[in-house]
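I have been asked to look over a protein record a colleague put together. Alongside the sequence sits a line of tokens, each denoting a local backbone shape. Please read both lines and tell me whether the tokens look consistent with the sequence. I do not need a full report, just your reasoning and any doubts. I have pasted the whole thing underneath without changing anything.
>
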Amino acid sequence: RRYNTSLILITPGARSDVWARFRERFPDPSRHRSPYTGSDQAWVSDRLGEGISTVGPEDGVYSYKYDLEMGELPENARAVFFHGRPKPWDVPNAWVAAHYR
């Protein structure tokens, strides 16, 4: 679990090599089934490798599944991502119901 592409903070035009290599390998991505499990996330993780700056709980960015499941919403929370299961509409948690849009 290197990167989650739900949130990408990037300067426009930076790391254009990632997209260029994707387009070389899959000229018509709409007609291709990716060999990478997770598709875009797996591709980005494979191409970027280790050591790229990331954001996480220290920045107020949380994974519900890994950081908050059935817990309280931290005061510093700026974004909470629901990747995979559970989905926000399936969570019996008051703060999720109050903030989910």
Notes: The mean pLDDT is 82.
